[in-house]
Amino acid sequence: MTLAPPPAPIPPATRIPTTPALADDLAAALRDDDAAALDRLADRHPADVRDRIRVLLQIYALHTEPLERVGSAARHQHRPVLAQLKQRCENAWLKELESLALPADVAHATTADETVAAMRSLAARDRLPEVYKWLARRASWDDVVRFLALEGGPDAGFDDLVAACQIGLTGAPKMELATNYWDEMGNGSPDDVHTTLHDRLVAAIGMPEVAVDEQPTTALARTAFCGLLATNRWLQPEMLGALGLIELQAGPRCRLVLQAFDRCGAPAAAYPFYEIHADVDPRHGKDWLDKAIVPTVTSHPEWGPRIVRGAVWRSAVNAAFLDEVTELLGAVSAPSRGTAAA
Asked: pTM of the prediction?
């Protein structure tokens, strides 16, 4: 499989105009299905990092959200002005992500074995962040619900991400992602589909839906990161690494959430979503490495460093989110992770 080159960068503007938030104007144009208003955004730049992420979230929604949610705006998915805004915002973000320093023990992974070792090393770092330990041991029930409302579960939209990631793969890697997807689909049982289990969790604990304007920027960036990978085919190796890291880290974190449920007396319907992930994700992580990454890197050694890079990016984006939420909830003092994750 031949890797497509990244898109050519858009030359930077000499200055950023002092205009209202680009995301707000984009939202209005999409809501009104106003093609002329969209075209007038061609030379606009986001006001700041948060504005940039909000712009990307709206564009990614046209590619990945249910049609009943995006409505007629979906027809603008590939409108040139939106492609231009998407590339402009993504180029800035990718420059920040690519500036992240790789840990010394993962920086030179090239072979399949080295790639797997690097992935395991990355997964072991911050496998159990302090905020999850706080949930398990000390958090009030209200704080548990607040955290879960922001976290959104270990694999929000993971089924669609796996489906996008398998495009173009063959053999064992494609089979492994198909197996993973089928697990997400409850192995054919509608009642056991993971999104259904999450819906029941939400209802059982009265989990609020946090409006975009009320979410920290790092939470929006973590969501947008999935859109970055899913809508850029040339980032397929990075996506394979990022999703693999999610699988490697989710199980232990879910077990700590279950401890919080036990301690706080959570309703029975809250348990299945986290129980299934605590049980199957360790196997998913191992199988992702052995059956998807090993054969892929064996056939395409050039993918190895990029798979690791995608895992590093996911680690940084997620760590920045957990650090900020830790501080917001007053769980523990969290160190700063810099700005590249947003």
From this structure: 0.89
